[in-house]
Amino acid sequence: MHHHLVYGIDDGAKSFEGTEKMIRDAVENNVDTIITTPHITPGQEPFPYEDYQKRLEEIRAWLEKEKIDLKLYTGAEILYTAHTPRLLQEGRIPTMAGSQYVMLEFSPDEQYKSILDAVSQVASTGYVPILAHVERYMQIKKMAQLEKMRRECNALCQMNNSTVVHKHGFFQERWNRRLLREGLIDFVSSDSHDLPGRKNRMQRAYERLCQDLGEGIARALTCGNARRLLLNQEE
Ligand SMILES: [Fe+2]
User: Fold this and answer.
1) Is 119 within 8 Å of 152 (Cβ atoms)?
2) Ligand 1 center to residue 192 CA distance, Å?
3) Average pLDDT of each block of 10 consecutive residues along the chain (235 residues)?
4) Is residue 16 part of a domain?
């Protein structure tokens, strides 16, 4: 549910060949459904919505021809701006698979108060905010901050596969583990860009989560919770 595979739209795949490699990487990782999430900066950078949809159709047709059983949905990783709530309401930003869920990204050094305001603005328009790679935000390092956003704005949290499978510095590692252990993460997803730099790693993340938290939680984080989100989708 966090993947930059549609070529030529953002800093993900650069060509159809790049898309193809990312798809094969995902399939090797036992992924059967992806919400594609190109970067969007509402009101600041034009988003090629038509090209995105056209390329997604082209990729779906190729999947059918190749007999690859992979479902693709529209979505977006929205770098939050003041224009975001209005443009969401006008239907000019893709939500996650056409659902009421939207994935928000912030600069890693964004202040907690600004993130809280943004999340609360989005929630007040009727959408459910998902904080993309929540572990990255340097100003959110207290459980209470996240608990408040979850409680008051129904916010959900996504962590990247690379965070789960790679070693980090002591404090970051401790924070990552704590987020997972305390149940503050809802989705663990690839955030794949182009190969070889940012591979899918879903299978390794799943295995690591199984070891650390047990199979039930690993399945919920890598698959079950995202599938529940798809039940809410309208497209
Ligand atoms: Fe991303």
Assistant:
1) no
2) 7
3) 95 94 95 97 93 97 98 97 95 94 95 97 96 95 94 97 92 95 97 82 97 97 94 62
4) no
Cite the beta strand spans of 25-169 per DSSP E. 33-35, 39-40, 71-73, 77-79, 101-105, 128-131, 156-160
Per the domain annotation, does 50 fall within a domain? no
What is the tally of structural domains in the chain?
A: 1
CA–centroid distance, residue 12 to ligand 1 (Å):
9
**Percent of the chain's residues with pLDDT above 70:** 98
Could you tell me the distance, in angstroms and rounded to a whole number, from the CA of residue 127 to the centre of ligand 1? Answer: 19
CATH number at residue 141: 3.20.20.140
Distance 181 CA to ligand 1 centre (A): 23
Does residue 32 lie within any of the structural domains? no
| Cα of 38 from ligand 1 centre, angstroms | 7
Q: Could you list the residue range(s) of the whole structural domain that residue 223 is in?
A: 77-231
Neighbours of ion ligand 1 (CB under 5 A): 77, 191
For ligand 1, the distance from its centroid to the CA atom of residue 11, given in whole angstroms, is 9
Structure token digits, residue 200:
């899918």
60 lies in a domain?
no
Grouping H, G, I as helix, E, B as strand and the rest as coil, residue 53 is helix
Q: How far apart are CA 141 and CA 97, in angstroms?
A: 30
* 2 closest CA partner among 44, 33, 46: 33
Residue with tokens 């070693």: 167
